[in-house]
Amino acid sequence: YTEAWDADKTSIHVMPDTPTILLAKANAANVSHKLYIQAWEEAKKKGYDLRADAIPIQSAKASRDIASDYKYKETHEKEKGHYIGCRTAQEDPKLSWAARAMLLQNDRIYRKAYHDSKAQVHIPVDAMSVQAAKECQTLVSDIDYRQYLHQWTCLPDQNDVIHARKAYDLQSDNVYKSDLEWLRGIGWLTEGSVDVVKAKKAQELLNERLYRTRPEEMKFTSITDAPDVVQAKINALQMSDVR
């Protein structure tokens, strides 16, 4: 039953540029996890340099300080107003517990017995316990355990380094305000500014005295025998109620 199919399987050849093959390759590239994280892996290899005055760092520090102060005073704020005074500190259970805890945590009292007895004990350097302790210290030592890799060095004229420096300069508050430092302490008069000149021009345009000239201020002599003057006199005589 399958003899003919097994014989045909070895003779079938599919061209690599068929739509089905191209679609399968595109789907494989879309679902590939290696290609998905390739840009992130390359960015991690380049390294980064985050300044202490960057905006995210300043925001994180401020948030940390606010949260730390809130957690530190949380118990005090809850117990405020619920405390009942005692005559002595020994009668207060909380003060007694705090004194006991302080006594247990006191480093001087904790090490007093050791300092009293350390000069009375002698251990040979070749003892089995000492040798075992040295070997255990070597095994758990962080210096021997870690093998630091070489430090990556980036050329200063690389495009990504130049771009990162420009980005840090734009985000840095000190660099952002550096061009205003030379203005500090310098006085400035409004005379000659754009707003003052604009106001003066507007005042000149709206000034009635400069816009219009009064007739009595104009020096001229009218001709009495001009045609328009003679016609005006005739019209005045004809329209006069007195005449």
Percent helix, as a range, is 55-70%
Q: Any low-confidence stretches, pLDDT <50, length ≥5?
A: none
Query: What is the strand content?
Result: under 5%
**Overall pLDDT score:** 80
The gross shape turns out to be: flat
Output the helix-strand order.
Answer: HHHHHHHHHHHHHHH
Distance between the termini: 142 Å
The main pleated sheet reads as: none
* Number of DSSP E strands: 0
Secondary structure class reads: mainly alpha
Number of helices: 15
What Rg do the Cα atoms give?
Answer: 48 Å
Keywords: Actin-binding, Repeat
Protein name: NEBU protein
InterPro entries: NEBU/NEBL (IPR055297), Nebulin-like (IPR013998), Nebulin_repeat (IPR000900)
GO molecular function: actin filament binding
Describe this entry's structure for a reader.
It comes from Pelecanoides urinatrix (Common diving petrel). The protein has 243 residues and is an all-alpha fold. Helices cover 59% and strands 0% of the residues. It has helices at 3-9, 19-30, 33-36, 38-46, 55-79, 93-105, 107-110, 112-117, 128-140, 142-145, 159-171, 173-176, 194-206, 208-211, 227-239. The model has no long low-confidence stretch (mean pLDDT 80).
